[in-house]
Design brief:
By secondary structure, this protein is mostly helical. The protein has 17 helices and no strands.
Length: about 450
């Protein structure tokens, strides 16, 4: 009887201590992180199509020996025409190939430095707090846009854009910001079901913000050119930084970092995959991270070449139409993903939903690679529907397998894999697109579908 009382007293003390460690309001902090996430994503992610279209317009000017159209709205006399001559067709191929090369350089200048940062930054955050993970990429994004604005304003060489993107890369960029968001979501959730839904909500917020950002960016490019969208996006990032500094509650009780050596934190980050104490658990970790890597390779590949694909023949889309498509695609697939997780998880395991999503994504990529009309491209999100839940489920499963004090480390390992796979995906599929743009333009998407099939089989 005395033992029971002692256990009750001990548990009550533990409950009190755990209550003291919790933020004052989980609801408030979830709302704040969602607002910050949407501000960052709506401003940062549209930089990919924005930079791509700007570079494309610069090469149009270069190959046509025309006037500078880079600081104003895109030239209405584009060499990309749905019915054109053989000579104009060759010109368009040269423009696409040159743009692909520049986009690849920008992509690697962000992702390669981010690999180094993400190896240890998440593990350190388990001791010094999460706010640092939010602030670093916000400052990096500001540097990226400042560099771009200077190039647009003064018509500098395209290589000057790389200076800003390198600073963004050494801040960890988008992968570190997502690391912060996912680790924060893990801090304020306890069960796998709520954590999965919280991560899906975070991913859905990313998709919604991306849709709004690209829609507005496409509209602004069409009306105002390339400079003012960058100014607006930079203002949004500054607003997000202010909210993080003054409104976001720290969820980690700061402790002394006993070991500052990156090697120690490297072991913490990747120890999940080599730990011999639990063979079955290690196998699940390895299988999950392989699937995560394959999905990330494809998703980054799509981001790298899709805008170029839409700018070229036979579609010849303008910035506004690219923005409309991005908004429709992300909003539709976000709604499908939320419905699938909310309703489907009550009937089947979330892992089954993830595998189903992979097969849907495979079908959508095949359709996109074979598309020859606008209507076929607009069917791509419909076929993909809830394919976006696959990455969210994997994040949730891996997060739930580790202790609360290891959340930063596990998400750091995923962020490192994310950036490394992103660099591989961007480089591989941008190069493949450039090599096949004059033969079978959709080859890159067909190869991506094969990679997704490998991920589904592995899972």
């Amino acid at each position: 009887m005395d033992n029971i009382k002692k256990q009750d007293l001990t548990s009550s003390k533990d409950d009190k201590s755990s209550d003291q460690e919790k933020p004052v309001s989980y609801t408030k902090d979830r709302v704040v992180t969602t607002i910050v996430l949407m501000l960052y994503m709506s401003a940062s992610m549209p930089s990919v199509p924005l930079f791509t279209q700007y570079i494309h317009s610069r090469f149009e000017d270069f190959y046509r020996n025309g006037t500078n159209s880079s600081s104003r709205s895109p030239c209405t006399h584009s060499p990309c025409l749905r019915n054109t001559s053989e000579e104009a067709d060759k010109l368009q191929v040269h423009i696409q190939q040159s743009t692909s090369y520049e986009v690849l350089k920008l992509s690697l200048s962000i992702q390669v430095p981010a690999i180094i940062v993400n190896v240890v930054v998440g593990s350190y955050s388990d001791h010094i707090g999460r706010k640092m993970l939010f602030i670093l990429p916000l400052l990096g994004c500001i540097c990226k846009y400042v560099g771009f604005m200077l190039v647009v304003k003064f018509h500098l060489h395209l290589n000057f854009i790389i200076l800003g993107t390198l600073l963004d890369g050494f801040s960890g960029s988008t992968s570190t910001f997502l690391l912060a968001t996912m680790a924060y979501a893990a801090d304020v959730t306890k069960t796998q079901t709520t954590r999965t839904f919280a991560i899906v909500i975070a991913d859905s917020s990313v998709a919604t913000a991306l849709a709004l950002g690209q829609l507005m960016t496409g509209f602004l490019i069409e009306k105002l050119g390339y400079f003012y969208p960058s100014v607006i996006n930079t203002s949004l990032i500054l607003l997000a930084t202010t909210i993080v500094i003054f409104c976001l509650t720290e969820t980690v009780k700061k402790t002394e970092v006993k070991e500052l050596s990156p090697v120690v934190h490297l072991k913490k980050v990747f120890g999940f995959y080599v730990n011999k104490s639990g063979v079955n658990k290690r196998f699940i970790f390895i299988a999950s991270v392989i699937v995560f890597a394959l999905l990330t390779i494809v998703n980054n590949g799509v981001n790298s070449v899709e805008t170029l694909y839409q700018l070229g023949r036979p579609f010849c889309w303008d910035p506004e139409e690219i923005g409309y498509f991005s908004a429709y695609s992300t909003v539709f697939m976000t709604i499908c993903g939320l419905v699938a997780i909310k309703l489907g998880s009550a009937c089947v395991r979330v892992e089954i939903l993830a595998v189903t999503g992979m097969f849907l994504q495979m079908g959508s990529l095949i359709l996109e690679g074979l598309a020859s009309t606008d209507a076929m491209l607009y069917l791509v999100p419909f076929v993909g529907s809830f394919s976006g839940v696959s990455v969210s489920v994997i994040r949730s499963v891996m997060s739930h397998m580790v202790d609360p004090q290891e959340q930063g480390a596990i998400f750091s390992s995923m962020a490192t894999v994310d950036t490394l796979s992103g660099a591989i995906g961007s480089a591989t599929f941008t190069f493949l697109y450039s090599a096949t743009v004059d033969t079978i333009r959709g080859t890159a998407f067909l190869v991506m579908a094969a990679v997704i099939f490998m991920a589904a089989v592995t899972r």
